[in-house]
Amino acid sequence: MLIRWRSPRVVVLLFVGMLLGCGDKAPMSRSESPGTASVPDSHDVPITEADVQMPAGYAEAIPRIRAYRDTIRTESQGATPAKAHRALDELDIVLNKLPTLARDSGVPKEHWEAINTGARELRNLFNQVHSAIDERRKPDYAAVAEPIEKGIARLAEFAPAAGN
């Protein structure tokens, strides 16, 4: 049988074949990066706000943030950095709720924007550590340690009862 390459049907079939490729190509999981085998990360379990014991108020949130920071620093520099996943995920949720906690705790309105900005900056800093862990690179907590400390100290200024 002779294949006519100029046949529109053959051209369409070749084009569709190139687009679809072959084989089952599932999307990469969060714990998978290009060039690595698909090995599930037992420490990277998705959580929701319902899985996190939220601080009762803004003043309680500051020591909780410090505790998460301590866990993340220790675990990310340990033999299994992935153990920091849970603390990173919980901290992200708490930082996301921080402006609401401030509002509901009676923190004056003129501080809400600074709290929102500070919480977002901390989330971005901790996300650098989280991304390195997800990409199976060695996390460099030291690179973000100083701005994290300054960010937490700034947030603590709005909750004098929180202490150090």
Task: Give an account of the 3D structure.
- The chain has 164 residues and is an all-alpha fold.
- It has a domain at 59-162: Four Helix Bundle (Hemerythrin (Met), subunit A), CATH 1.20.120.
- 55% of the residues lie in helices and 0% in strands.
- Helix 2 packs antiparallel against helix 3 and helix 4 (112-134) runs antiparallel to helix 5.
- The longest helix is centred in the C-terminal third of the chain and has 23 residues, at 112-134.
- The protein is globular, with a radius of gyration of 23 Å.
- The termini are far apart.
- Residues 13-39 have low confidence and may be disordered.
Low-confidence stretches: 13-39
Biggest β-sheet description: none
Q: Can you tell me the CATH class of the domain at 59-162?
A: Mainly Alpha
Mean pLDDT: 81
Summarize the helices and strands and which ones pair or pack.
Elements: H1 8-20, H2 58-76, H3 85-104, H4 112-134, H5 141-156
Helix pairs in contact: 2-3, 2-5, 3-4, 4-5
Which characteristics define this entry?
Four Helix Bundle (Hemerythrin (Met), subunit A), 5 helices, 164 residues, 55% helix, mainly alpha
What does this entry show, briefly?
This protein has 164 residues and is mainly α. It has a domain at 59-162: Four Helix Bundle (Hemerythrin (Met), subunit A) (Up-down Bundle), CATH 1.20.120.
